[in-house]
Amino acid sequence: MSEAFHIGLGNDDPQIRQRSKSDSVSFWDDQAKRLSWFEPWTKTLDWNPPFAKWFEGGLINASYNALDVHQNNRKEKPAIIWEAESGESKILTYHDLWVEVQKFSNVLKSLGVVKGDRVTIYLPMVPELPISMLACSRIGATHTVVFSGFSASSLRERIDDSKSKIVITSDGGYRRGKIVKLKPIVDEAIENFDFVKNVIVLERTKQEIDLNPKDKLWNELMQNASDQCDAEKLDSTHPLFILYTSGTTGKPKGVLHGTGGYLTHIHSTFGWAFDIKDSDVFFCTADIGWVTGHSYVVYGPLLHGATEIIYEGAPDYPNPSRMWDLIQKYKATIFYTTPTALRMFMKFGDELPNSFDLSTIRLLGTVGEPINPEVWRWYFKTIGKEKCPIIDTWWQTETGGMMISALPGIETIPLKPGSGTRPIPGVKLSVVDEQGNDVPANTKGYLIIQNPWPGMLQTLWRDDEKYKTAYWSKFESTYYSGDFAKIDEDGYFWLLGRADDVLKVAGHRIGTAELESCIVSHEDIAESAVCGIPDEVKGEVIIAFAVLNENCKKDSSTLEKELLEKIRNDIGPIATPQQIYFVSKLPKTRSGKIMRRLLKAIANNETIGDVSTLEDGAAVTEVQTAFQEIQKSIKGNNS
Ligand code: ATP
Ligand code: MG
Does residue 428 share a domain with residue 526? Predict the structure, then answer.
C-alpha cells in the first residue's frame, strides 16, 4: 500500500470530469469554445483512422490567441520575465510582445515567407525565440525549432527534412559562462541548400561574425518593419509546427502538429493542471527546443495571459542555487521541471534551497521521465514545504500536451509519490498485454490511447507510412505510446519506463524504472541507470550504474554491498545486478533523459546508432570503459 498525500487547492469542478465521460467529442467541442475563433468549425472531429481532423472548417490563429486577445485587459501585464545566467534581464509586457511579434511577422513577409512555408529556428533561450515562433504562426508559416545545443549535422538533417526557407539564429548564446557560437554551425548546416533563402542573425553576444550573402541581421530588419500585421485566418488543421522528438529510443521523428486541436489541448491542460490565476508567476525550466517548451513555455502560458519566467543558461550555473534564487527574486508561484534536474538539485543537499524564500511557490510539476518516489518526496518536502501539490505529468511530443496528470485546477485527489494519477478528462488510456487486452490491476503492460485527442500529432512530417507503423500498427486502431505502465486498484497510472528498456532475467521481466528508483532511494545515490547484458544461463544479467551524492564519503565496496542488500530486500533477489559501477555521469539526451538504448548497445557490442541528441560524449566513454571491465571480468571468471 503506497502513501498518499491529499493536498488540494479547493478549486474542485466535478462538472468537467463528469461531462467528459458522457461524450468526449462534444466535451472537447466545449473546451475549444474557450479560444477565439474567426469562424466556428462545422465538424468537431473527422476521424479517418489514424488521421484526425479537429474542428474542421474553423478558422483560428495561435499568435492571435496568445497576444491579441490580451490587449484589452493585460496590455501592461508582464508576459515574459527573461533572465540570462549573466544576470542580464528584460521584461516584455503583453503589449511589448505583441508589437515585437507583429514587426517580426512583417520581416518574415518581406523575405518572401508565405503561409505554408517552413522556418527553422535555432536560437538560445532568448525572447526572440518565442517572438519568432509567434511571428511564424501569425502569418501561417510552420515553425520548426531545433534545440540550440545540436551539432551542424543534426541541424542539417532537420533543415533538410523540413525544407525550411528561412533559418533564424544568433551569433551565439551563453552556457556556463562561455559563448557558444551558433552562426558557424548554421553556415555548415545549410551548405549547398539552395532552398534556404535567408538566414536571420540575432546579435546576442556581440562577437565578430562572417556575413554571407544570404545573411540578414535581426536588428536591421526590425528597424524598418511596421508594427502592424494582422493575424492570418488559418484553417484549424493548418500545420503549426514540426518538432523532432528527443531521440531517446532512436532516430528523431518529425512530429507535425496542427493548430485548433493543439491549442484546445494546451489551453485546457495548462489551466486544469497548473490552476493558473492572473496573479501567478509561472516558471518552467524546459528549453523551448523541446515539446515542453512549446506547449508550456510558449503557447500554454500565453494563451492564458500568464506571467512567466524564461531563463537562459544551465540550471546550476553560476551556482547550484540559481533556480531558487530566481524563484525568490521573481516570486514564482508555480515551478515545473524534470526529474533529472531534481535529482541534480537533491545531490547538492537541502541547505541551498532552505536558505532561500520559496514561500511563494504553491504548485510543483514534473515531466519527462518517471519520477523516483524518493525524489518526489524530496521535492514535496524541501521545495514545496509539504503544502504544494505535485503534478507528475505524462505526455509525449506526439500527444502535444499532458495526457496523465493530477489537475489541481479542477479536482483534488490524493497524490501518490511516483504516480501521475489519472488521465486528463476527454481521453481514453489503457494498459494492455501483447494481444491488446486490458491487464488486471497492478499488472505491467503497454500504455495505449484508444481515442483521438485534440493535441494528437497529425502525422510524421511527409511520412504517413512511418506514422502508421510507429504508432498505429502494434494494436488495431489504437495509439501505441511505447511506454510501460500499470494501473493500481484506485485507477492511478504508474509509468514504468520505455517498453524497449525492459530487462528479462531468468524469465522475469524487470522494469528499469523500478530498479533505478530503488537504487536512487539509497541516501548516497543521486542517479542511476540499469541495463542488461546477455547471459547464457539467465538470458540477461543486470548491470547498474550509479552516480554518488556530492557529500558521500563511503568507499565503493561498502556502498555496493548496501545497495545489493537494498535491492534484494526491496525488489527481490532476481533484480540483483551482477555489478554496480560508480560513474561521475550518465549518458543523457540533450533533454536530460538517460539514453538506456546506448547503454544496451555498448553492453551488447552493437553499434551505437544515432547519437545526435546525446548531451556529453564523456559519459559514453566512461560507460564504455566500465563495460570493457565487466567483459574482462566475465571472461576471467569463465576461464
Ligand atoms: P524518442 O521518441 O525520439 O525516443 P522521447 O520519447 O524521449 O524521444 P519526448 O516526446 O520528449 O521524446 O518524451 C516523451 C517520453 O518521455 C514518454 O514517452 C515517456 O517515456 C517519457 N515521459 C514523459 N513524461 C513522463 C512522466 N511524467 N513519467 C514517466 N515518463 C515520462
Ligand atoms: Mg518518444
Answer: no
